[in-house]
């Protein structure tokens, strides 16, 4: 009696909502990579929850045909953790930009890494706040002086998201480039399949406020080693890294955090405690 | 009839065991068939700070502290000046002081109460392992006529597992105190009373809120500790797990509220508990829950504010932020328990309302109820259980935010085929697609307020008692003192009505008009400096021409006599 439905293609995971992104934005490629990864995995659309915060890239759930939550600025990982803890049966993805994830959401990023709930987080890193028209983000170089807010540059050292993730305890770390969506799709598949918190940084150029990022395609280079399995080795490599190495950079083996309630008491049992 | 009761304050600095002493007396009173209430007043120190256990015991249920204490047992006088205003004594009251601790301080002596010396420290020192608080308990219990056997029963139950030596030392201390009491002056005594066998609970407001949450169907809790709300979460941690739910400690309140949003979006009734500073951090995301129509419950156990304020003491000053704190037009529920027992009902009802209306509910409890413990008649089960309108089975052409007559639209829970949608804090159309169009904004604002406005909240919106041309209008922990003041006034032939508002938001103008029919003079009672409740009432209700306001900031509680005096002056 089981009638096998035809397998879903990546287009089945796309919605009919038109993205607000600029032509040439790297985020289009990330959207393609996400839908391709989901099609490759063959997960039913209704079993996927895709959570985001605020910013250009955080608009991504609306462009997919899965369950989604477009929350407030910086809190995607907290919502995503709530979804997964409440419903371990769901596949949970979170996504957003470098400002959303590492500035206003920085505390949640650190704790999501160490909490190690089984989900996958994609940061589309363009080193700029695009939606507010071009301000420096935590990943912006200190001497970038094209922002009206920091015309002399920030003078503040940027953070490397992968190093931060490793130090905080992420269980899977990869870096991809929007110019190579097939590779990003593969990282997403691996991240979803890897237990615990998987972090994927995608270098995703902002053609409007950071047109020089078009040159990233000639700067990125694949990792020349297989993924590090131990933290010290991954740390050593990342310390010497230029931030443009793509590949799976770390695969840890910590067990995910997933408390499970047990039905062992009735309300009458609970009430008896108060009888005097 | 005025309530016949005995009130005892036990005070001491760190390690004196004032709280333990109070707890034992309350438990013993309960065992002996009495009702009682114990609130706590503490300094902010973790150890070594000043602490007072404030008790009232009666053969009738107790909902308020009395106007003064009949006995003050001072284990020492450390930092007593910080407390003196919270320890009103009458001239007939008795101060039991340890001569070794020096003179009775001026701030306490100024009440003019009788003073009796009891060398608790010396008596305790004569007992191997003896503790001064047990000597105090023995003396106090004997003075008020609380059977010493009941106290012994409690001690045996609580200390039995700590070994025979500990129990023997406590018992010896208790008996020594009881014997020494024979030489002390007489004080107000409890009436002879037997346990009538009726079922009763010994419960704190924070435990009651936690129990109400569970009975309402809460299955997911995110937690960040904050005084005085933490005990709601600490009650839930083991007990939620026992009924199949999951609790997660978050990194901050921004995370806890958003985890709760995630848990609810995923299909589980979800809750967090906090206090004022935490509520302030959560407000942006509570607005997200309004816009995305995600049901959830936030229990706010209020403390003195603003800012860090007085973390360990009570105040009703979060009313404004709870009602008006969200940006934009954001209709939501604000429910306020009006007694320790009602913390269970109000929280359970809030879970039901939040789920039925797919919007956040803030439960406004306070430290005076949350951290107080009360012996109450066992509450009846209200039967309110979360029931969310969900999109069942395979759904075609699903519109998450469909414009329905009730305003409530079916929510697809992840896992439902065909129900895929994106919940959004951006304004959206019926499908959930972001929209900045005027027509969509108008339609969705209308929808979100319609579902709250059209709902039938029944009689639970307020507790209304008595009749008269005079009425007391209050909320939360103002209710107990108002009830008692009205009872006392009645005994003097003054008729007054009580209106205690449980559903703060949305306001219920038609029901309030009915409740105020025939009322000519109104007394508004609240514990805030700026009259937040009074101004809220002015903004939402038509009040009688003559309105007086009794408002004071925390930490001093409203006393029944304050209300009674005003009612008497109106007659």
**Would you count the extended β strands of chain B for me?**
21
Question: What CATH first level of chain A would be assigned?
Answer: Alpha Beta
Unreliable stretches of chain A: none
Assign the structural class of chain B, choosing from mainly alpha, mainly beta, alpha/beta, alpha+beta, or little secondary structure.
alpha/beta
Radius of gyration of chain A: 20 Å
Q: What characteristic shape of chain B results from the CA principal axes?
A: globular
Strand order of the largest sheet of chain A: 2-1-3-4-6-5-8-7
In CATH, the homologous superfamily of chain A goes by the name Thiamin diphosphate (ThDP)-binding fold, Pyr/PP domains
The CATH topology label of the largest domain in chain B is: Pyruvate-ferredoxin Oxidoreductase, domain 3
Overview of the molecule:
Chain A has 276 residues and is α/β, with parallel strands linked by helices. Chain A has a single domain, classed as Thiamin diphosphate (ThDP)-binding fold, Pyr/PP domains (Rossmann fold, 3-Layer(aba) Sandwich). Chain A contains nine helices and eight strands. Chain A has helices spanning 27-41, 76-86, 98-104, 106-115, 161-168, 181-193, 216-219, 231-239, 267-272; strands at 48-52, 67-70, 91-97, 119-125, 172-177, 197-203, 221-222, 245-251. Chain A is globular. With 571 residues, chain B is an alpha/beta fold. Chain B folds into four domains: 5-183, Pyruvate-ferredoxin Oxidoreductase, domain 3; 202-377, 3-Layer(aba) Sandwich (Rossmann fold), CATH 3.40.50; 389-455, no CATH class; 460-570, 3-Layer(aba) Sandwich (Rossmann fold). Chain B has helices at 18-31, 106-109, 120-125, 132-144, 148-159, 164-180, 205-216, 230-242, 253-265, 276-292, 319-324, 342-357, 367-370, 438-453, 479-491, 509-515, 532-540, 560-570; strands at 5-12, 35-42, 51-58, 69-74, 89-97, 114-117, 200-204, 220-223, 246-249, 270-274, 296-302, 333-335, 360-366, 373-377, 422-424, 462-465, 470-475, 496-501, 503-505, 521-526, 546-551. In chain B, strands 6-5-4-1-3-2-14-7 form an eight-stranded mixed β-sheet. Chain B has a seven-stranded mixed β-sheet with strand order 9-8-10-11-13-12-19, with helices on both faces. Chain B has a five-stranded mixed β-sheet with strand order 16-18-17-20-21, sandwiched between helices. The relative contact order of chain B is 0.10. The mean pLDDT of chain B is 96. At the A-B interface, strand 1, strand 2, helix 2, helix 4 and helix 9 of A face helix 1, strand 7, helix 7, helix 8 and strand 9 of B.
């Amino acid at each position: 009696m089981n009638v096998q439905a035809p397998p879903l293609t990546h287009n089945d995971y796309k919605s009919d909502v038109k993205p607000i992104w600029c032509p040439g934005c790297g985020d289009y490629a990330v959207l393609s990579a996400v839908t391709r990864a989901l099609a490759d995995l063959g997960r039913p659309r209704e079993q996927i929850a895709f959570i985001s915060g605020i910013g250009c890239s955080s608009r991504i759930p609306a462009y997919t045909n899965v369950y989604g939550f477009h929350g407030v600025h910086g809190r995607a990982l907290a919502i995503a953790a709530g979804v997964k803890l409440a419903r371990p049966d769901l596949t949970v993805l979170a996504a957003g930009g470098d400002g959303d994830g590492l500035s206003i959401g920085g505390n949640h990023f650190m704790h999501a890494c160490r909490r190690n709930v089984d989900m996958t987080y994609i940061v589309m890193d363009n080193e700029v706040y695009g939606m507010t028209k071009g301000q420096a983000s935590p990943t912006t170089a200190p001497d970038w002086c094209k922002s009206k807010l920091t015309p002399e540059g920030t003078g503040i050292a940027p953070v490397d998201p992968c190093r931060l993730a490793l130090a905080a305890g992420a269980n899977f770390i990869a870096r991809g480039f929007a110019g190579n969506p097939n590779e990003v799709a593969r990282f997403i598949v691996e991240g979803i399949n890897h237990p615990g918190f998987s972090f994927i940084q995608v270098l995703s150029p902002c053609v409007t406020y950071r047109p020089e990022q078009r040159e990233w395609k000639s700067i990125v280079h694949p990792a020349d080693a297989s993924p590090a399995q131990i933290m010290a080795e991954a740390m050593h490599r990342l310390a010497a890294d230029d931030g443009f190495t793509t590949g799976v950079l770390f695969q840890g083996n910590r067990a995910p955090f997933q408390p499970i309630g047990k039905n062992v008491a009735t309300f009458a049992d609970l009430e008896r405690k108060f009888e005097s | 009839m005025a309530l016949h009761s005995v009130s005892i304050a036990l005070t001491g600095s760190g390690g004196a065991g004032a709280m333990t002493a109070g707890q034992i007396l309350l438990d013993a009173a309960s065992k002996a068939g009495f009702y009682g209430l114990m609130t706590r007043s503490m300094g902010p120190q973790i150890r070594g700070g000043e602490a007072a256990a404030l008790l009232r015991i009666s053969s009738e249920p107790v909902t308020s502290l009395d106007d003064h204490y009949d006995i003050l047992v001072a284990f020492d006088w450390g930092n007593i000046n910080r407390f003196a205003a919270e320890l009103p004594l009458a001239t007939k009251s008795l101060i039991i002081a340890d001569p070794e601790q020096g003179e009775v301080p001026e701030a306490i002596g100024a009440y003019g109460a009788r003073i009796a010396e009891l060398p608790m420290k010396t008596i305790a020192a004569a007992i191997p392992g003896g503790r001064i608080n047990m000597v105090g308990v023995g003396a106090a219990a004997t003075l008020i006529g609380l059977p010493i056997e009941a106290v012994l029963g409690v001690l045996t139950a609580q200390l039995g597992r700590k070994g025979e030596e500990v129990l023997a030392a406590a018992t010896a201390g208790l008996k020594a105190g009881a014997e020494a009491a024979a030489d002390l002056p007489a004080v107000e005594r409890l009436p002879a009373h037997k346990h009538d066998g009726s079922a009763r609970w010994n419960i704190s407001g924070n435990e009651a809120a936690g129990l109400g949450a569970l009975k309402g169907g809460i299955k997911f809790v995110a937690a960040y500790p904050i005084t005085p709300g933490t005990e709601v979460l600490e009650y839930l941690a083991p007990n939620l797990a026992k009924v199949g739910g999951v609790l997660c400690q978050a990194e901050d309140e921004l995370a806890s509220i958003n985890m709760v949003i995630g848990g609810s979006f995923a299909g589980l009734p979800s809750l967090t508990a906090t206090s004022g500073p935490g509520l302030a951090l959560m407000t942006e995301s509570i607005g997200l829950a309004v816009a995305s129509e995600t049901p959830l419950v936030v229990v706010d156990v209020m403390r003195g504010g603003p800012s860090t304020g007085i973390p360990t003491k009570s105040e009703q000053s979060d009313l404004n932020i709870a009602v008006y704190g969200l940006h934009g037009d954001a209709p939501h529920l604000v429910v306020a328990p009006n007694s320790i027992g009602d913390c269970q009902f109000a929280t359970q009802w809030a879970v039901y309302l939040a789920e039925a209306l797919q919007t956040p509910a803030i439960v406004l409890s306070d430290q005076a109820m949350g951290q107080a413990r009360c012996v109450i008649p066992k509450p009846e089960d209200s039967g309110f259980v979360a029931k969310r309108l969900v999109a069942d089975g395979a759904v075609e052409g699903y519109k998450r935010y469909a414009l329905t007559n009730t305003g409530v639209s079916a929510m697809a829970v992840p896992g439902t085929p065909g129900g895929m949608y994106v919940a959004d804090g951006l304004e959206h159309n019926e499908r959930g697609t972001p929209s900045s169009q005027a027509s969509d904004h108008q339609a969705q604002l209308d929808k979100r307020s319609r579902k709250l406005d059209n709902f039938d909240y029944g009689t639970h919106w307020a507790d209304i008692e008595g009749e008269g041309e005079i009425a007391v209008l209050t909320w939360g922990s103002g209710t107990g003192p108002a009830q008692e003041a009205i009872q006392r006034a009645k005994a003097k032939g003054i008729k007054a009505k009580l209106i205690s508002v449980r559903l703060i938001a949305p306001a219920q103008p038609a029901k309030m008009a009915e409740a105020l029919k025939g009322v000519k003079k109104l007394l508004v009672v609240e514990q805030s400096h700026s009259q937040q409740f009074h101004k809220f009432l002015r903004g939402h209700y038509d009040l009688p021409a003559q309105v007086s306001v009794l408002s004071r900031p925390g930490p001093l509680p409203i006393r029944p006599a304050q209300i009674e005096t005003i009612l008497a002056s109106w007659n």
